[in-house]
Amino acid sequence: MLKESVLFLAQQESIRHLAQHNVVAQRVARRFVAGETLDLAMEATSALNQRRISVSLDHLGENTADEREASVAADDYISILEHIHQRNADANISVKLTALGLDISDTVCRDNLTRVLRRAQEYGFFVRVDMEGSAYTQRTMDMVCELHQTFAQVGTVLQTALLRTPDDVERLLQERIRMRLVKGAYLEAPSIAYARKTDVDNAYLRLLRPLLERGVYPAIATHDERMINAAIRIAQEQAIPRARFEFQMLYGIRRDLQERLSAMGYNVRVYLPYGSQWYPYLTRRMAERPANLMFIVSNTFRG
Ligand code: FDA
Known about the structure:
Distance between the termini: 30 Å
Radius of gyration: 18 Å
Low-confidence stretches: none
Shape: globular
Order of helices and strands: HHHHEHEHEHEHEHEHEHEHH
Strand content: 5-15%
Bound molecules: dihydroflavine-adenine dinucleotide
Number of strands: 8
Helix content: 40-55%
Number of helices: 13
Strand order of the largest sheet: 1-2-3-4-5-6-7-8
Largest sheet: 8 strands, parallel, barrel
């Protein structure tokens, strides 16, 4: 309930304005966001790589309604690919289709994504298409499946909160498309999504097995040790080698667990966002853990 309220309030324009100008919110954002520039993001990438942790870079931005901005977003991603290539970093990229123009039209978005994928293909890099709110699920699935026929190195994300996800998992398994499994960070209607956290967690546990047994290098993206331990158990039972899947976590969350899994010999990748448009990303992190929000509120009113 609190999660829903945080996500709902965060969408109100007056609150967005207040938060973006709030010094404490900016400070908290720095915990989850590597900085405003690509150079800072590359520094954070190299620090993680030194600790044997891979990275997926996200240039923050979503829901653009401007064709030129969507094209600039694609250019920015191409520039990230060039930086990764030049520095030989252990990293790939995560993109949001609404940043590349999905709200404008499928054509604009497809053209921009194709440009990014073409460059990634030249360098041999993988591109992850993040999953946004359910209004975009079908179009995201369709676009990824379509482009995967030309670009093998594209994959996407499925959210166990959505009731449709088992069917989507099956579709991606059959088409041999890489997927990242998450619980889901968006506000969804009870008619299409589980309302209770236990149901979302149980759905996650159920989907781990098909993902690990039949998936193409699946990404188990969670900070929940119960999910992680279940994945490790299934992999051990089925003798699935560690190199065949990876764990993923968000920048700034459960660093201890990231390091522990990496030290145990598992592949670990950190999702590393950067850029000035941190507000929507930060609100999702607040909703996942309202203690983060209470920190901002109490420090704002303290003095
Ligand atoms: P859960 O919410 O149960 O948290 C488990 C534990 O993790 C908590 O007890 C706490 O210790 C820690 N934790 C979790 N969130 C925290 C936070 N914000 N601050 C501090 N501690 C926190 N979603 C989506 O809809 N589309 C997407 O494309 C992606 N992409 C993505 C990539 C990666 C690499 C990750 C890890 C996650 C996503 N997500 C996402 C977000 C995902 O849907 C989910 O909201 C978060 O991962 C939180 O859920 P957990 O699985 O961690 O479990």
